[in-house]
Amino acid sequence: GYPQNASGDLQKGAEISTENRVLFHRLANALRYLDIRTVIVSCGTCMDQLLKYEFERIFPDCRLLDIHEYLLEKDVKLEGIQGVQYMYHDPCHTPMKTYNPLKVASKLTGQKVVQTDRCCGEAGTFAVSRPDIASQLRFRKQESLQAGIQALTGDSVARNGNVKLLTSCPACQQGLSRYANDTGLETDYIVVEIANHRLGKDWQKAFIDRATQGGIEKVLL
Questions:
Q1: What is the dihedral of CA 115, 117, 120, 123, to 10 degrees?
Q2: pTM of the predicted structure, to 2 decimals
Q3: The dihedral sign for the CA sequence 94, 96, 101, 106
Q4: What is the pLDDT of residues 128-147, one digit of tens each?
Q5: d(Cα 13, Cα 53) in Å, to the nearest integer?
Q6: What mean pLDDT is predicted for residues 18-23?
Q7: Domain boundaries, the chain
Q8: Which residues pair with 114 in a beta bridge?
Q9: Residue 116 pairs with which residues in a beta bridge?
Q10: What pLDDT band is residue 110 in, cutting at 50, 70 and 90?
Q11: Of 33, 43, 117, 216, whose CB has the highest number of CB atoms within 10 Å?
């Protein structure tokens, strides 16, 4: 319901939120035997909206946690990565509410991560509704990115993958990808970067194969 609320359609946003809460209550009843204590989220905007759902009243003693914070608690991280240094873009709607985002990024990547400030200019419908302002933000963000690369390598452009940009927001990842031609930076989700290194480039196909072979709990709501 967040996009509808943000665009001014409060009635539609409320309808979607109510429908979703009803579904979550049904899910909680159907999966009561699992004693769900953590609901994992991978989007900051979704996190902000779901915090209003009162999950602790749906799943008793439940908490909302960003996927990267969950990996931190489970000590899933990269080790011994060489030939690449990381920068981190913390989204305006950061999904990490429990732990410090920069510390999470550094812990998960196994190295000190440089944070690049300023909004990426994507911001949901912002880039579409106000491209004039979004473009101005883009110029400032590019300066920040190039300053970060300069601090890490002495050059203003990343070369041959020596610097990579990570984030924890799908919309930001889309927005940050627009800087690739000017900065040489490849942008990825932190969890995807971990999966690529730990599970291999074909991890998505392998996951889908395992999930479709009995790895999904099917519930009739």
A1: 100
A2: 0.88
A3: negative
A4: 778 888 888 889 999 999 99
A5: 13
A6: 92
A7: 2-71, 77-199
A8: 87
A9: 89
A10: very high
A11: 43
Answer for the pair 87, 190: CB distance below 8 angstroms, yes or no.
no
Residue with tokens 């967040």: 2
- CA–CA dist 82, 216 (Å, integer): 36
Place of tokens 């994992």: 40
Contact 176, 91 (CB under 8 A): no
Of the candidates 163, 195, 193, the residue with the CA atom closest to the CA atom of residue 180: 163
Q: Could you tell me which CATH class the domain 77-199 is placed in?
A: alpha beta
Residues recorded for the chain = 221
Separation between Cα atoms, residue 174 and residue 85, nearest integer Å? 21
Q: Are 221 and 23 within 8 A, CB to CB? A: yes
Residue at token pair 């610097």: 163
d(CA 103, CA 119): 19
Q: Could you give the CA distance from residue 143 to residue 133 in angstroms, rounded to a whole number?
A: 16
